[in-house]
Amino acid sequence: MQLNYIANASIPSSSGRTIAVLDPSDGQPFEHIQRSNASDIDSAVRAARQGLDTVWHKFSAVERGRLLMRLSQKITEHAQELSQIEQRDCGKPTRQANADALALARYFEFYSGACDKLHGETIPYLDGYSVLTWREPHGVTGHIIPWNYPMQIFGRSVGGALAAGNTCVVKPAEDACLSLIRVAQLAAEVGFPAGVLNIVTGYGHEVGDALARHPGIDHISFTGSPSVGTLIQQAAALRHCPVTLELGGKSPQIVFADADLDAAVPAILNGIVQNAGQTCSAGSRLLVEQSIYEPLLARLGAEFENLRVGPADMDLDLGPLIRQSQQQRVWDFLSDAQVAGIPMVAQGRVVDEAPQSGFYQAPTLLRDVPFDHRLAQEEVFGPVLCAMPFKDEDQAVTLANSTEFGLVAGVWTRDGARQFRMARRIRSGQIFINNYGAGGGVELPFGGVKSSGYGREKGFEALLGFTTLKTVAIRHG
Ligand code: NAD
Prior knowledge:
This protein is α/β, with parallel strands linked by helices. 39% of the residues lie in helices and 21% in strands.
């Protein structure tokens, strides 16, 4: 039985209720978490406020940085343990779970070094005045985390908030919170004072909602679906609480005829297969210049047929989806495709060893998907790639910009001038040219436009979002 972690202590919810945690690889319960309520959130926010006011605000930037570095090192020492926890919780293939644990350590490493580089400015003003700006923490920040990359999203969101001097209350997703409870324990072990990092588990509509409404929360970082993002904004608006929203995407991979296909094909494949397509930045739309449409689909089709799906610990190309309702969601999209007569190019295979009770879905490549069909407009959040041809650059831009989202775009072309034109014309938070998010990008600001959200996390830019600017004007003679 897993407990909440508040003020460096493991505490049961005052509700006395729990939620069963299922292993997506076999659909069976293997653990229980707390089904917390508003009163647990209140305890965590009070603990965070006390931690901030009594201890954390006295830490200098360099001391905060050293503590974050100790946590990074501790996470690295426990990387295998954390990876195994998250693998079972989320159904991630071993390589993906390992990469996520190392990314978590890297976030704390990056933000440890950033703490004492964050500073304000002096501003020339009237004679006899000195004006300066201070970057101050918001205070107590709330973090609502989705289930697809718990460790990575915790690292980028909480890492930045702590580096900027905030204390944090974290609400992980009900489907995947085990690794984060363990990280909070490790933080206490390396010396994080009580109240600086608190974890409260439970359902979004109960405990997430209570966090978003709590008057003691000074800033909310929300990563999740656009519809819940709207609810968060509404709750925050009632008390003018600032919000960072990292929402969904329907990201295009745009391939011109002059592209280096040897580089593009593996990146296109990985962009939709990674984490079984349950990735906000999944490259789920494939826009291909007409003249290479058929050969590229033939090549990708062969790759799709070789893909294997199975239990997380078999470490195949894909693990299961997170839960049955997610599996059903993907099935619904695929049956809509069938009804609309959208042709399937190829499908991978679920291996025989995969238990019937697990939440598996074979990766699927569809072609000639009309740009306005829901398959080309909505986030499937599963391993389904939708291909469509374009005739020229203008049409590629129109198609790329034709959804409500604007998170990531991949552009594949050797033409340098076109690279810049495309980067300018596509409405998106990130443009990757001749790559698709290689290297993890801890250092790179990340976020969306349109329904993909606003505000930026990752990189140094995140620290600006996790602080507020105070202007101090002094008249001295
Ligand atoms: P979700 O919106 O259902 O849940 C996200 C979190 O919000 C969970 O912790 C959930 O418990 C909580 N929540 C749910 N209802 C709530 C409410 N009424 N009030 C407060 N909190 C509530 O999303 P999900 O299904 O967990 O995650 C998938 C979505 O997240 C996709 O849309 C994906 O694109 C997006 N995502 C975006 C990014 C990014 O960086 N842009 C990263 C990962 C995931």
